[in-house]
Write a structure and sequence with these properties.
single chain; 227 residues; alpha/beta; six-stranded mixed sheet; four-stranded antiparallel sheet; 34% helix; globular; binds adenosine-5'-diphosphate; nucleotide-binding; ABC transporter ATP-binding protein; ATP binding
């Protein structure tokens, strides 16, 4: 669990290209649920990927907790990511999918079992740990993807449009699910979306972005109840 700090963070994909992200300054509080909101191409994913370490930054500094992570590779950043195409391993059971990240880190078997069961309890997926992903509904699969992300108890949780492949009804349900999950584990979260309703209902604060620039950072109440 940690605070995330962005100091003048910029990204340019090529020397002569426009900035995809320009001079971002953000102070994300420990355990906050922060939403990046803006139209396609405004730089939401780029920013998230820089926090994850999946994209080099062109300028500025990113801190996770007290650590300057600019030169720290993704696997050492202690963060988990969830994408819209929740990439579960098709040939592994739900249990094995959730356990995978711990197994490759040689975590002892009994600890893995505890961690998977804890994650399964939070997400209410304990009754189908033996199934394969293809035997699950879209919503169940997305919950397994969330299980994979929380099982290591990361310092931060990064979600990039995790619900955009789901149908409308499921999306509403999963929104509530993610909020519940966030309350239960209290991990600092950045959530990317272009959906105003999602931003409004989920965010502690919303970062409104446009063309690589932060336009406003505030609570949903302030952003949507302006006179
Ligand atoms: P969003 O997530 O808000 O849709 P992105 O962060 O994906 O926005 O993109 C921001 C800008 O950076 C866009 O202009 C996009 O075309 C550009 N961009 C994103 N990824 C790359 C890339 N790998 N190479 C070059 N340009 C990119
Ligand atoms: P896990 O499911 O535990 O993330 P993976 O094998 O998928 O295990 O990834 C190993 C490590 O590499 C992760 O802990 C993570 O730090 C990093 N990593 C891999 N893919 C990503 C990603 N898409 N986003 C962020 N980090 C990633």
């Amino acid at each position: 669990m940690a605070r995330i700090l962005l100091n003048n963070v910029s990204k340019r994909y090529g020397k002569f290209k426009e900035f995809a992200v320009k001079d971002f300054n953000l102070d994300i509080e420990d355990q906050e649920f922060l939403v990046f909101l803006g139209p396609s191409g405004c730089g939401k994913s780029t920013t998230l990927r820089m926090v994850a370490g999946l994209e080099d930054i062109s300028g500025g500094e990113i801190f996770i907790g007290d650590t300057l992570v600019n030169d720290i590779p993704p696997k050492d950043r202690d963060i988990s990511m969830v994408f819209q195409n929740y990439a579960l391993y098709p040939n592994l059971s739900v249990y094995e999918n959730i356990a995978f990240g711990l197994r490759i880190r040689k975590v002892p078997k009994f600890e893995i079992e505890d961690a998977v069961k804890r994650a399964a309890r939070v997400l209410e997926i304990g009754s189908f740990l033996d199934r394969k992903p293809r035997e699950l509904s879209g919503g169940q699969r997305q919950r397994v993807a969330l299980g994979r992300a929380i099982v290591r108890q990361p310092q931060a949780f990064l979600m990039d449009e995790p619900l955009s492949n789901l149908d409308a009804k499921l999306r509403v349900q999963m929104r509530a699910e993610i909020i519940r999950l966030h309350k239960a584990i209290g991990v600092t979260t950045i959530y990317v979306t272009h959906d105003q309703i999602e931003a409004m209902t989920m965010g502690d604060r919303i970062v409104v972005m446009n063309r690589g620039i932060i336009q406003q950072v505030d609570t949903p109440e302030v952003i949507y109840n302006r006179p």
